[in-house]
Amino acid sequence: MGGGVIAGDFFDTNSRLGRSAKNVLVIEKGGLTFHSHCLNTSRPTGFGEDRGQQNDSFFSLFKEDYKFKDPKQADEWKAGPMFNVGGRGATWGLFIPRIHDDSLNDELGPGLFQQLVSDHSWYRMAENLMKLYLPKTNAIHLDLMERLNIRTSGSQCQWQWGRIASEFDESNNFDFAVGAYSPIDKLLEIAMSKDRDADKKCIEHPNWKILINTEVRRIIWQGTRAAGIVVRDRSGKETQIFLKKDTQGKTLTDTQVILGAGSVGSPAILMRSGMTEELQENNGLHLTDHDIFAKSFTYQYTDPTMREKVGSMKIQSYTRLGSGKISLVNVAIDTSSFLPRQPDRAQSFTNQDFPQLVVAHILPSPLDQQNTIELDSKGEPVVIAGRHPPFSNSDRDVKELRELTKGIIRVIKKRLKITLRPTDPDETNEWDDESFFKPLELGGVGHELGTIPLQSFTKSRPQVRFLLDQDLKLREREGVYVCDLSIFPYSPEVNPTLTLVALALRLSRFIHPRTPVLTKDDDTVYVMNQTGDKVKVFVSNRAGVPETTDEIAENVKGRILLPGEILSRKRSRTIDETRPVLYLASPGALCVVD
């Protein structure tokens, strides 16, 4: 997801900068498997209560499996990479909650925290890019959330709508996704938005290209600086690609390599590039996933008309546990299957006439120091990773969340007038069952991370070394950045995708800023064209500053600015040259403001 977002954002930046555009080469190991998120395409139906969503089925079908040293550990995992344009952005689960403020500040430090959450923050930009969905709220929804707030106040819960990166029919909240976000859409838009010559042949973008079916094997170093990469095509042929050099043969300092091959793929590239010891000595290679566990119930409304009134609900809340941890609780009421699911579907009765109620929990986790990655004789990654310690319903946090689940279910039963089927835990005393929760497989929703971590600022664990600085650059090397799930210094209590996209946008604008650094004089007006097209500019002169003959003529005819060009004019420090732009809005007509 991170690499796809950066690639698209680089293109948009280039379109604004004209001659200042940078050359961008995007390299994808796979091909074009999906043209959008799988939920925006035709997909199979007929699997009981799923309503045809099936992103989880697509993930299982199209991912590749990690290679494990211990076959028993492979049984604990469902994770694996997807080699296609957009990667796992074709099938991801669409949840985009933020990491809780306290966790974010504690783990990533106050500097990154402020940049992510401020008013004009990277979180806000990421949510806008991903089309954060705000559902329709009726009185019955509001009443349920208020009642849950009262019942769970001891856990500091504040219930709100789940945060989903998809569009839904307004009358059917969280029912059937019709506009699921994926970076694939932007990448294909770029590929198809090429001009044509007189013979109707495509004219390649001058500064942006994508190679598919090409694998990055390793980085070529010039000292400690990245000078290029070695790639391999499907036939096994390897080719060297070098970054731009100066006249002395040295790699230019403003050239970069950005790795986005995933939590196993990216460290494997670095290991093949001679960095195995650096990774091992700086808290790298500890592949980790958080515990996700859920309880699913089939139910019936005692009043059949209530199902239409309630519709589908997906709500969430953070909860602060007695141990000090912050976890996320997701509740899905009669929603599609790509929202919280029961880890063991065989345990739940499936029939589309009987809706499902699912309560799912995510607990944060430090990086698992027992997990690591090795390379085999062919240079391919071998994973040594398990769940340490094993999941247990007797764990203090899990027991506390079971009591919270009990309260949530009882409130929902009462407020929505439902009966649980085929059994009710209040009648069978199932609440005390030591197998009440079962964990999702490790990597079951593609959240494995932490193999090339940022610095962790938390005081709850001993400080350890780290691999990336706050700008996602390898600390002991030059010209190499990483932007995928491997960068996280811990496994948070939420789906990490939104945070990754926010950091990807931040990295994109850091490497390739849209506004150039200028020597800004307070008696000068600057106008920059970032429309991506030619514009005609007129600069007012309210201050009455003497102008040259050319400047006077330009203010009559206008000055043409190409994309990225800047015009400056001397004016007065004390007089604002801003002028309002008028738009005509007529009844019955569309007024476009841009």
Task: Give a topology summary.
Blueprint: H1 2-17, E1 24-27, H2 55-62, H3 71-74, H4 101-117, H5 122-129, H6 139-151, E2 160-161, H7 183-192, E3 208-211, E4 214-222, E5 225-233, E6 238-242, E7 257-259, H8 262-272, H9 276-281, E8 291-301, H10 306-310, E9 313-320, E10 326-333, E11 356-363, E12 365-366, E13 372-375, E14 381-384, H11 396-416, E15 418-421, H12 425-428, E16 438-439, E17 480-482, E18 490-491, H13 497-511, E19 524-528, E20 535-537, H14 549-557, E21 559-561, E22 566-570
Parallel strand pairs: 1-3, 7-17
Antiparallel strand pairs: 2-9, 4-5, 5-6, 8-11, 8-15, 8-16, 9-10, 10-11, 12-18, 13-14, 19-22, 20-21
Helix pairs in contact: 1-7, 1-13, 5-13, 6-11
Helicity, as a percent range = 10-25%
Form type: globular
Q: Could you name the ranges where pLDDT drops below 50 across 5 or more consecutive residues?
A: 339-349
Strand content: 15-25%
